[in-house]
Design brief:
Blueprint: H1 8-36, H2 40-54, E1 57-59, H3 60-67, H4 71-83, E2 87-91, E3 98-102, H5 104-124, H6 131-148
Antiparallel strand pairs: 1-3, 2-3
Helix pairs in contact: 1-5, 2-5
């Protein structure tokens, strides 16, 4: 088998994987946006990390690292979130970095969004899986994560 090219079966599998992932994410994002006004990846992802990883406060660099975004992308997104009253940014006392702080409005928004997010993920993904599917997906994710993090 030529490893420099994907055969037709490999191409179909790859495109099917990407297409299904995109369809599931699009549906979750649509439900989140329509029902909460938050974007799934950006707003919700940032707010959840602030609450779950930092008890409401994280350094901006910690958000960059956990979101796997560029500093610029996060900064622009945080500016929009600040304008909507979801977060605040404050320079650290040491002058070395910026803290991102969830506001009461941001906390209310993420708390109200969690059940909607959970329902969408269950509906479009988890409820479609058997126990065997979960086991296989978990093994695949662990193996590919290990391979791509080297």
């Amino acid at each position: 088998m030529d490893k420099d090219w994907l055969n037709e079966e490999e191409m179909q599998l790859w495109y099917m994987w990407k297409s299904n992932y995109k369809k599931i994410m699009d549906r979750v994002v649509k439900d989140m946006s329509e029902k909460t006004g938050l974007s799934e990846e950006g707003d919700f992802g940032i707010l959840v990390r602030l609450v779950d990883l930092g008890n409401g406060v994280l350094r901006q660099q910690e958000l960059v690292d956990s979101m796997e975004w560029t500093k610029s992308r996060l900064s622009h997104h945080l500016t929009r979130m600040e304008q909507r009253g979801l977060v605040l940014r404050k320079p650290l006392d040491t002058g070395n970095g910026v803290q991102v702080i969830i506001t009461p409005s941001g906390k209310s928004a993420v708390d109200a969004s969690r059940p909607i997010y959970a329902k969408a993920v269950r509906k479009y993904f988890l409820d479609q899986l058997s126990d065997q599917d979960v086991e296989l997906i978990t093994k695949l994710a662990e193996r590919t994560d290990k391979m791509t993090s080297d």
